[in-house]
Amino acid sequence: MAEIVLDHITKRFPDGMLAVNDVNLNIADGEFIVLVGPSGSGKSTVLNMIAGLEDISSGELLIGGKLVNDKSPKDRDIAMVFQSYALYPHMTVRENMGFALKLAKTPKDVINQKVEEAARILDLTQHLDRRPANLSGGQRQRVAMGRAIVRDPAAFLMDEPLSNLDAKLRVQTRTEVSRLQRRLGTTMVYVTHDQTEAMTLGDRLAVLRNGVLQQVGSPEDMYGRPVNLFVAGFIGSPAMNFLPGTVEDGKMRTPLGDIPLHDRLRQALEQAGAPRDLIVGIRPENFEDAALVSAASRPEGITFHATIDVLESLGSDVFVYFTKELAQGVDAAELQELAADSGRAEAGVSGDTVVARLDTATTIREGQDAELWVDARAMHLFDPGTGRNLSLEAAVRADETVAGPTNLASGAADTSQAPATPAAATGQAPPSPGSAQAGPGQMAAGEMAAGGMAAGETAAGQTAAGETAAGETAAGGMAAGETAAGGMAAGETAAGETAAGQTAAGETAAGETAAGEAAQGGGAT
Ligand SMILES: Nc1ncnc2c1ncn2[C@@H]1O[C@H](COP(=O)(O)OP(=O)(O)O)[C@@H](O)[C@H]1O
Ligand SMILES: [Mg+2]
Fold it and tell me: How many CB atoms within 10 Å of residue 196?
């Protein structure tokens, strides 16, 4: 068990690439934290620095209160699970899971006990004597996790461990990872580019963009109080809608109509020196079919007309899409970046289409000129130049005004750093990590079952890899990658240390599968 502290951590690669820029993050003991951001934002680099697979250019890394910058991976007491979890094809599940312990010369009965315990947690007991080729993708992923669990590390580091699974299995395994972490209560640093995965898994999220930490907080913080355009557009599905807005005569002019500004907000915007032209952010659920809004609620927003281009009824939700003379659109680097990011392909951040989620009681139809309502209280106002969420800052500022002395000058002047609100990326760990008290042992081992994965489901690619690897050359190749990964975590082999010393271990291990490289958007391509 250990807390992990990143203190002004920076990574500049030899070619000059500044991949991680001055990241500060306090990860509490037992906490489940998710590093999330688009491909290339520096997530793997951060994780590899924690693991010891990449040198730290500057800053300090502490694990369990000890400075570990110069410690080799094996002395960091962490276990890592990669996206491309190469299992030894010629070994059984039991042998795969116990291999690191065997290298560490752990007594056989202890190995057996640990492997069986891990197998029970992961519902792999009945598969212990099988080979990887005879397992489904999800089962193989669990074996990879089992390998990490048996080491009983101070922390788990996982780099997109579910990316190779199909959508359904990914959701199932996601739930397992979450239960597993609660059950073990071990600190977890989990990397993903998938914001849904991040939101469902993390006690807290740390959003990265171009190597810079944007915001650290609970899923609720990220969703309800995004500090800037980037976080606002990245978190949430369907994504937040962005419309141009102009402050005029105490109102916000938008393509939907004039939205009155509360005096407090208007004053705060003025005090902050906000530009007249802003970007208005509205989440899909802040719209409603006007006919379903009570007379009491109506004044809290505005009603407007829109021609419904598309209506999607999902049973639990109704989504409508419409355009609203957004010709001039909104233009901000953050939004272009998000639109370009494949992880957010479905996002409404690029186009001129607005998406609204309506109550299923709506009788609005496709093609209809409908009357809709939007909740003005829920809108976010962004500075198009800096991307900062001015409404959030205004709210904080207003609170401060009530509370006493303020420090407006520093808050308003500091535009060089992406996160500017007091609550922004301070990276402080919460006082009590939720997961640590979430009742270990609360779930029976049987509940860990993913269910429904027949051996027949074995992914073709994986089987091929396993079969090829049975040949000696390929097996050697896989073992090398494997040793790098295993050695990094268990650190018991010379090969592992050498690889780690060259800071190329991660790449060697990940590089074993082309899919791994591609999906990780790694440096090789
Ligand atoms: N060995 C390297 N040399 C130079 N640049 C690298 C190297 N590894 C990664 N990068 C670059 O650093 C940035 C962050 O990479 P990475 O941490 O892998 O991002 P992520 O995991 O978020 O997709 C990317 O622009 C990537 O191309
Ligand atoms: Mg990565």
Answer: 16
Q: Which residue range(s) make up the domain with 257? A: 241-388
The model carries a pTM of 0.76
| 361 and 474, same domain (yes or no) | no
Minimum-distance ligand 1 atom for the alpha carbon of 35? 22
Instruction: Please check whether residue 251 lies inside any domain of the structure.
Output: yes
Q: Is residue 403 included in any domain, yes or no? A: no
pLDDT at 1: 66
* CATH assignment of the domain containing 299: 2.40.50.140
- Compute the distance between CA of residue 439 and CA of residue 443 in angstroms, rounded to an integer: 8
Strands 301-307 and 18-27: unpaired
In the reported structure, the alpha carbon of residue 510 is separated from the centroid of ligand 1 by a whole-number distance in angstroms of 13
Domain end point (choices 356, 388, 420): 388
Same domain, 326 and 199: no
Nearest to 77 by CA among 65, 89, 88, 85: 65
Q: Same domain, yes or no, for 197 and 255?
A: no
- CA-nearest residue for atom 2, ligand 1, is 523
Considering the domain boundaries, does residue 259 fall inside one?
Answer: yes
Same structural domain, 345 and 206: no
Which atom of ligand 1 is the closest one to the Cα of 37? 22
Residue nearest to atom 14 of ligand 1 (CA): 42
Tell me the CATH number at 59. Answer: 3.40.50.300
Looking at the fold, whether 338 and 472 belong to one and the same domain comes out as no
pLDDT in tens, 120-145: 988 899 999 999 999 988 889 889 98
Nearest alpha carbon to residue 94 among 130, 58, 70, 59: 130
Of the three residues 388, 420, 447, the one that is the final residue of a domain is: 388
Ligand lying nearest the CA atom of residue 508: 1
Q: Please state, in angstroms and rounded to a whole number, the distance separating the CA atoms of residues 68 and 76.
A: 7
Neighbours of 273 (CB within 10 A): 11
What pLDDT digit, counting tens, does each position of 427-464 carry? 555 444 333 333 333 332 222 222 222 333 333 333 33
Per-residue pLDDT tens over the stretch 145-172: 899 999 889 999 999 988 888 888 888 8
Q: SS3 of 491, please?
A: coil
Computed over every residue of the chain, the mean pLDDT equals 77
Domain assignment present for residue 325? The answer is yes
Please tell me what DSSP assigns to residue 175. Answer: H
Q: How many residues can be counted in the chain?
A: 525
Total domains present in the chain? 2
* Strand 32-36 relative to strand 204-209, pairing: parallel
Task: Output the ligand 1 site: residues, CB below 6 A.
Answer: 13, 15, 17, 19, 37, 39-45, 520-523
Largest Cα–Cα distance in the chain? 78
Looking at residue 344, the DSSP 8-state letter turns out to be G
Do 31 and 160 have their domain in common? Answer: yes
Q: Torsions phi, psi of 454, nearest 5?
A: -75, 155
- Which whole number is the average pLDDT over 226-233? 95
Calpha distance 508→499 (Å, rounded): 8
